[in-house]
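Page 47, continued from p. 46.
Same chain as before, 340 aa.
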Amino acid sequence: MLAVVYDPVNGFGLRKTEVPKPKKGELVVRMKACGLCGTDLEKIQGSYTASMPVVGHEPAGIIEQLGEGVNGFSEGERVFAHHHVPCGECWLCVSGSETMCSAYRRSNIFPGGFSEYFLVPQWNVSRGGVLKLPDSVTFEEGALIEPTACCIRGLRKAGGNSARTAFVVGSGPVGLTHVKLLSMNGTKVFVSDVNKRRLSLAEELGAERTIDASESDASKEVSEYTGGEGVDLAVVATGNPSAVTQALRSLRKGGRLCLFGVPVKGSKLEYGLADLFNSELSIITSYGASETDTKEALNLISSGRLDLKKIISHEFPLKEFEMAVKASMDGQTVKVIMQG
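Result:
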């Protein structure tokens, strides 16, 4: 089969490998759709090292084969498979920090979601990491479950449900998902980016106002739009450190910032601690998603309340993986889905 795998000499590449065979408690899925995420691109570039070198973590497909002892699933069923699954039992898990569980990043699908077939380990299967897709949910929508779940978790941690106003910095796929989730809740959302196509999509998904950051000072405009008060919540959906400063300057006194985009390793924040303290600002970080979040994401998508199909701009067959990566890195795309 074809799969995108890593080797220390050549890095990531599309190569021929053996179809995995499930052992006890495992299952094998035939990939039908898998989203290409910003963290995948960072891994390919070598700038993301927070977890093991496996790419493709937004997969949906059809169960091809069940290992011995797998209950509750059948061959031929349509599913989404979560790559990282916590133990659910340690103090970090029971206190709400499931994605910080020591087992979370050790679990994964193999060889990754960008493969014709991938194996879901017993750990993931037995702990709720595989969700059945209703017939109403396409495989492409199934591939949006994981990034949507991450956004749901971030907004919950940052108190997004109580935000009257919000500023989303960066209108890539996850930024646009935040826009949709916040606007569904009645929040007045402002968005900044330098990509006019993405800003237009933000408006379609419910943004109150969009700001081209290449043409104006976004934090200053947000201040003007809010009568000088600033927003309740700022979501940084990019890894650019300057975006964090811009977001902090857009907050009202007592406001909250959700650091969602993955900063490049070694990034530094240039912002006065006295200003942070005197305005009682809070910085909340959010990494990944739990099984509670993936189930909520699937419920929102399957109910029709959360329609994110507009953010899918390109679909490539797996054999054109390198072309898909190049198009994404060149800024030609919004959300790319690889097809099996």
